[in-house]
Amino acid sequence: LVTGVQTCALPIYYMRRIPYDTMRKGEAVSLNVFSGKKKETLTIHYDGLETIEIDKKWFACYHIIDRKSVV
Questions:
Q1: pLDDT at 59
Q2: Taking Cα atoms as reference points, which of 62, 20, 67, 59 lies closest to residue 40?
Q3: Which of 42, 48, 52, 56 is the most exposed place for a label (fewest CB within 10 A)?
């Protein structure tokens, strides 16, 4: 859990640094973000690997789902 994230860019940076390759499907990580005067918890759920096609090319991707709750 990362506390005190202050800007919009930091949660995106944090999400990119999560070691998804060591996570199990269904596992989640959380971080606190501040939206105006509200403290929110952003929870990233790892849903496994997925292969997607973009412009006739195939890419292996981590399937993640984000959820937030206002505290």
A1: 97
A2: 67
A3: 56
Beta strands 2-5 and 28-35, pairing class: parallel
Spatial CB neighbours of 39, under 8 Å, sequence gap ≥ 6? 32, 33, 70, 71
Q: Given the structure tokens 């999560």, which residue do they identify? A: 18
One-letter amino acid identity for 19?
P
Which residue type does 35 have? S
Q: What share of the chain is helix, strand, coil (3-state, %, to 5)?
A: 15, 60, 25
Check: pTM over 0.85? Answer yes or no. no
**Sign of the Cα pseudo-torsion (51, 54, 57, 61, in order):** negative
What amino acid occupies position 12?
I
Length of the chain: 71
